[in-house]
Amino acid sequence: MPRRTDLRRILLLGSGPIVIGQACEFDYSGTQACKALRAEGFEVVLVNSNPASIMTDPDMADRTYIEPLTPDVVRRVIEQERPDALLPTMGGQTALNLAVALAKDGTLEQYGVELIGANLAAIEKAEDRDLFKQAMERIGVAVCPSGIATTLEEAEAVGDRIGSYPRIIRPAFTLGGSGGGIAYNPEEFRAICLSGLDASPVNQILIEKSLLGWKEFELEVMRDTADNVVIVCSIENLDPMGVHTGDSITVAPAQTLTDREYQRLRDQAIAIIREIGVDTGGSNIQFAINPANGDVIVIEMNPRVSRSSALASKATGFPIAKIAARLAVGYTLDEILNDITGKTPACFEPTIDYVVTKVPRFAFEKFRGSPAVLTTAMKSVGEAMAIGRNFEESFQKALRSLETGHAGWGCDRPDPTPERSELDRNLRTPSPDRIFAVRTAMVNGYSDADIHRISSIDPWFLAKLRRIIEAEQRWLKGSRLEDLDADVLLALKQLGFSDRQIAWATGAQELAVREQRQRLGVNAVFKTVDTCAAEFASTTPYHYATYERPLERLRDDGTLELIAPESEVQPETRRKVMILGGGPNRIGQGIEFDYCCVHASFALQDEGFATVMVNSNPETVSTDYDTSDRLYFEPLTFEDVLNVIEAEKPEGVIVQFGGQTPLKLAIPLLRWLASPAGQATGTRIWGTSPESIDTAEDREQFEAILRKLDIRQPRNGLARSEAEARAVAERVGYPVVVRPSYVLGGRAMEVVYGEEELNRYMNEAVNVEPDHPVLIDQYLENATEVDVDALCDATGRVVIGGLMEHIEPAGVHSGDSACALPSVSLEQEVLATIRQWSEALALALQVNGLINLQFAVKDGLVYIIEANPRASRTVPFVAKATGVPLAKVASQIMSGKTLEQIGITAEPKPPLQAVKEAVLPFKRFPGADSLLGPEMRSTGEVMGTATSFGLAYAKAELGASEALPTSGTVFLSTHNRDKPALLPVAQRLAQMGFRLVATEGTARSLRDAGLAVEPVLKVHEGRPNIEDAIRSGEIQLVINTPVGRQAAHDDKYLRRAAIDYAVTTVTTLAGARAAVEAIAALQGQPMQVRALQDIHG
Predict the structure, then answer these.
(1) Alpha helix locations (H) across 473-567?
(2) Comparing C-alpha atoms, which of 697, 634, 632 is closest to residue 664?
């Protein structure tokens, strides 16, 4: 059936901020859907709260609303825009749940909006655990022995029926298994059932008999209205059941199924998608197979584009979201042409002639108190994907893409020799490092059968991993580089060994390995991802590197002719520029950097360049094959980047947009480009020079610049030993901020209030050595932090793009703090100083492109905290608030244009007040505390805009799922130092009609000032205490600012209770003042929604 003509306007819902379980793969699917629908002539209205996404760029949709994703807000957008249809399957679980809410409360019917992509019945049948179970019984597909519960009593009854432990608890309508888990005993069972019931918006959990040790598979399936069904891709988890598929190492296509087993999964998947009734889009269906007897059980189905859809799209080249969007508006699969071949219809199933491995990236080190154990609730913050000709190659490439310091699967450091009991435990317990425990076991004499028995990892994977170790022992152990001939080097490269691993094993330098390889003719060749295993020619340059043997051809005279392996990189006549992406998402380096890379590609294409993207992250828009002219899906390591440079010979390389990942390569790359091999490519690094970036990072060099410019900075010092650290802290004066030099996202940074704490930090957090000094800075207590993003061109003109005032005080990592643009409370004189210093520093550091500067203001004095001459995480927010796309402008500057030519000569004035708020994942990490500090822990951000600060802040909090109450009870507890400043906050709350409760000391000081306050016990003072009050729903807002370790520890329980029961919690006084202003605005003003296109004209 051709495209529907009765629809004109389509509403698309995004997935909101990046959270664990729902990351930027939904920015990728939403962006694809926008492009596909507009190409078909539809008007697209988009609602999403995340400013760092590409989909919220004003040119992606016709009408773009960066607003909180709540039923109430979306209802206002529907009222204003009157769309004909709502497509909810591109925005993850958030969009799906919103669509269900709007369908059920009658909004869609009232405004005549049709649900397309998946209808309400199909969504409910797939998402409601009870309905799904009944549907599977009807078609004879086995489900796990289980039961549904909506209360703890029902859960206990289901548990009694199942009988045995462990049991798995899965909440309905949630994302990434949030709130669920594995219970090994009655106490854990009750705790997880409670958190699951709470996490599920419909208060429903499924309790299953555990299938721990079974093998897990998923199929990506698409179906259209003519009942054409295609299996896009099969994916197999390397980890057995019990680990959330988002946290498992996964491999595509499935490796260990016999043809008969695969056909059976196919048949069941097709039966399931028909029964559930998804007929205009993609679905993801998960199965478990018992390795003992081959029994198959279906685990669950997502009736939408899922996290795995991004992986399957990148793995096959088949754009699931783009095709699903077209199916939703009436097309059938046989009417849609495959983009990559340009000849085959989309009803052709993709075939792949390579192996894809995805490895997740974790951040447990950020959440002390939460054990690094993997369960059915997802905890990874990002992932890397790699493509190789066999499992070993793609697996080792994926591990070196992760940027956790590994050059592959071992062979880059001495192997540990742990106690047998400890090694057994590491093999048995799923954790981020279990795959390295497998290696340790193999090296320490465990057989594959032993490892399989303890870990349940399939013997096929273990046999493949064993091949890597055997190759290493046969060819590398005790060898020198010159002993390795072409055959050996080729064999090692085909098993995915990096030059760094070969260098470590042979005691050589990495570049020496490269030179030896190239001299012997062992070079990477680039192959194409073409959806059809080379059956048709591919027009899309989407490449991966591999190593191939020369072909042998028989000549007429009977002699052999050797033909070199063929590289599939096509010639290009336009000027080329290469952009290095950000690699896997992690805390401290998220989607904002991918946004900058995508903007660079778009801007430079407009300037007539051919753009070449290199990245290893399957979730992002940058790795979409139609974002850049060429895409290389490769690890961002020195070796792999050089391979691409030698293949493409670009004119320029951009390293300033992908966060720390490409910056770490900048200096080695600069040196290599100056060598004869580098000069042969004719390539140079564009933008601010790596030396300038280094100068800004290096304490001593940066201080010299500040002294020359007479710019004030907090008292500080550098310590290379513990004694030195104590002396420096004494001189600087407590409290101090201590941190290791060169960090990303403030790792292991702490505010220390005295010598005792300093000694503890030295013992626990860092080892101070002469090469790894510790930085010690004066902590500016209660100072206001300011962020500046500025542009500088080759003529020395500096234009400030945005000046943001932070809400949380200095000492809270800038990535975790809310901020306001324009600033709300700073004096003109202070602002003038900040602008003047920003310009002076941009010129002193010879910036060519973007620079981000951080300042602190205390008692009217301005201090510089740091300067980063590169793109920063605030760039997308500033662009959305001011209407000036900074990353695009910076790319044009790097290509040689001046700010005058681009038409930006003055600081843009934001038309409205904008507020950015960070979103933190504490719910996912039981045991971790929600107190903010100098170490960054947020995973994403949202934005609120309004005519006043109060309302903009209220909208940002609502978008971050920290909705502020307009009535009820507020609990107050602060340190003595904060009590005077708490008084005005408490007075305003009382005036606005809130009931106040407080701990003894705080209650006394507020009562003395004439306020009515009820006292409540602290956690350690007895019962009923504040924790009981929170858990029984009596408290609507918590304001708690502890100082010092005892208070921080004591109040941790009540902050944890507030997280568990979703009570909005404020842990800084500045945050409390902003909250009070926001509550006043909510009580007095109606919430308005505005499209970006209207705000910026």
Answers:
(1) 486-494, 499-506, 510-519
(2) 697
Maximum CA pair distance of the chain? 108
Contact 438, 457 (CB under 8 A): yes
Residue 574 gets which letter from DSSP?
A: S
Note the Cα 1095 to chain centre separation in Å: 29
Strand pairing class (1064-1066; 355-361) = unpaired
The answer for residues whose C-beta is within 8 angstroms of residue 341's C-beta and 6 or more apart is: 530, 531, 532, 536, 537, 538, 539
Query: Which tens digits make up the pLDDT trace of 317-373?
Result: 999 999 999 999 999 999 999 888 888 899 999 999 999 999 999 988 888 778 899
Spatial contact of 17 and 919, defined as CB atoms under 8 Å apart? yes
* 583 vs 382: CA distance, rounded Å: 9
User: Cα(1072)–Cα(994) distance, rounded to whole angstroms?
Assistant: 14
CB of 656 within 8 A of CB of 410?
Answer: no
The whole-angstrom separation of Cα 665 and Cα 653 is 11
Residue 87 tokens read as 């497509």
Q: How many residues does the chain have?
A: 1097
Average model confidence (pLDDT) across the chain: 92
Q: Which of the two residues, 734 and 1058, has the higher pLDDT score?
A: 734
Per-residue model confidence (pLDDT) at position 24: 87
Instruction: Read off the DSSP letter of residue 298.
Output: E
For the chain, the distance separating the N- and C-terminal CA atoms, rounded to the nearest angstrom, is: 38
Distance CA(1024)–CA(1028), nearest Å, equals: 6
pLDDT tens-digit profile of 35-94? Answer: 999 999 999 999 999 999 999 999 999 999 999 999 999 999 999 999 999 999 999 889
CB atoms inside a 10 Å sphere around CB 826: 18
- Structure-block tokens of residue 108: 């869609």
Q: What is the pLDDT of residues 444-483, one digit of tens each?
A: 999 999 999 999 999 999 999 999 999 999 999 999 999 9
CA–CA dist 282, 303 (Å, integer) = 7
pLDDT digits (tens, 9 = 90+) for 685-730: 999 999 999 999 888 899 999 999 999 999 988 888 888 888 999 9
Question: Closest Cα to residue 785, out of 807, 754, 816?
Answer: 807
Structure pTM? 0.93
* HEC string for 232-286: EEEEEECCCCCCCCCCCCEEECCCCCCHHHHHHHHHHHHHHHHHHCCCCEEEEEE
CB 195 within 8 A of CB 1060: yes
Distances (CA, A) of 777 to 727, 732, 854, 1068, 1085: 13, 7, 14, 21, 43
The single-letter code of the amino acid at 521 is G
How far is it, in rounded angstroms, from Cα 103 to Cα 76? 15
Mind giving me the DSSP string for 623-673?
TSTTTSSEEEE---SHHHHHHHHHHH--SEEE-SSSTHHHHHHHHHHHHHH
Alpha carbon 784 to its chain's center: 28
Instruction: Give 177's contacts (C-beta < 8 A, 6+ positions apart).
Output: 21, 170, 171, 244, 375, 376, 377, 378
* Type of residue at 373: V
What is the pLDDT at residue 1049?
57
DSSP per-residue string spanning 348-416: SPPB-SSEEEEEEE--GGGSTTS-----SS----EEEEEEESSHHHHHHHHHHHS-SS-SSSSSSSPPP
pLDDT band at 127 (very low <50, low <70, confident <90, very high): confident
Gap between the Cα atoms of 70 and 720, Å rounded: 51
Top-confidence range, 18-27, 62-71, 759-768? 62-71
C-alpha to C-alpha distance for 945 and 956, rounded to whole angstroms: 8
> Residue range 834-857: average pLDDT?
97
Instruction: Give the residue among 344, 937, 263 at the shortest CA–CA distance from 588.
Output: 937
